[in-house]
Amino acid sequence: TMPSIFSYQSAEVDWCEGNFERSAVIAEYYNTVTTVSTTVHVLPSRAPQASRALLTELPLLPAGLFSTYFHMTLSYVGQLLDELSILWTLAVAYSFWLPKTYFPRCIKSRYDPEGHCVAGSEGRVGTMTSMVAILRSIALAVSCRCNDKRVHRMAAVMVLWWVLAISSWISDRWLCGLWQALSFPYLHSFWHVLIAISLLYCFPLVIYFDVRNEMPSFKPKLGYWPSDSWPIVVPYINMEEPLKQC
């Protein structure tokens, strides 16, 4: 008989961590526990775009919950929910934060109903392409149109954490035998934490350039809480007085 799609270990993917080694209920213990990092995400901001940032972050909550369910059960339904929630999160980010310069000519405003429809459809079809476009726009803005050292620092730190996260994911997936031989099959759990840290820097950076591009009368400023000198900080956006228009 066909196994139930809700059954434990019915998924097509099984990560490197051993199953049911630390719990009789949780299949991948560390992969399950570390998904909390994707559900707890704080973005302190006084920027006008903060409400849109919150809407972008909201899909991260079900994505984290579905990831928890997937790693806990390794069920086929859990796998589908985990993957689809990530795609929809990317689609929402694409809809809200794609720079206007990439809009089709028929879309005049981000807030047009047809604009959201087109952006959402394109996001569902090509989410990875959208992320490349966003990262490319950030890189171009940082290298060509911004002299703020804080921005350069935040972009560099974001990319560093992102590279570490991707490296952990790839290593766990393709070098599992090596890590099992070294008795350290936990790199996928590192992926959860590292990608959450990367997003912590990514969101303020995207908001910074969105304010600069779409609200030129305001001057956004990046900051770090509690202090720039601390080794572990939380980045945020602050708004200075509106610039005088000549």
From TrEMBL:
It is found in: Membrane. It is an enzyme of class 3 (hydrolase). One of its GO terms (molecular function) is metal ion binding. Keywords: Calcium, Hydrolase, Lipid metabolism, Membrane, Metal-binding, Sphingolipid metabolism, Transmembrane, Transmembrane helix, Zinc. Its main location: membrane. The keyword Calcium applies. Its EC number is 3.5.1.-. GO terms for cellular component: endoplasmic reticulum; membrane. Pfam families: Ceramidase. Hydrolyzes the sphingolipid ceramide into sphingosine and free fatty acid. Belongs to the alkaline ceramidase family. This is Alkaline ceramidase. It comes from Columbina picui (Picui ground-dove). The lineage of its organism: Eukaryota, Metazoa, Chordata, Craniata, Vertebrata.
